[in-house]
Amino acid sequence: MNTKGGDQDLRVSRVAKAIRDIVANAVTRGLRDVPRGPVTVTRVDVTRDFKAAKVYVSIFIPDTAAARDSEELIDRVLEAFQASTRELSSLVNKQLRLKHVPKFEFVHDTGLEKMNRLAGILDGIRTPGKPSDGAVGDDE
Questions:
Q1: Whole-number average pLDDT of the chain
Q2: Considering 8, 15, 28, 121, which has the largest number of Cβ atoms within 10 A of its Cβ?
């Protein structure tokens, strides 16, 4: 039985997790202009040859922020990450010793925002004044 493909996939996922941890720790310690509070590194996708890595970052945006302000914050954070590419590459190279240090691409991860929006929609569906215990047909 050939498990080489499975071994490769396992290695890719381990390297992706390691890169996520390295980038997240760099943000926590203070990475150039990347703000610490509103930013979380959610995941990293790495190509099988380790030449490219897509780093997904979740950016906390207050509900009171205007759409234009939100877009500006997202752009500023992604630009700060891009400006830190050399530093991140150096950290990854020191800690992982890969043949190729991946070229980073930073992407805004909207998964948490979508989940919060869906939770708000579901909260709005509940009938005011009735307990939402999940019971159906208790009209007796």
A1: 82
A2: 15
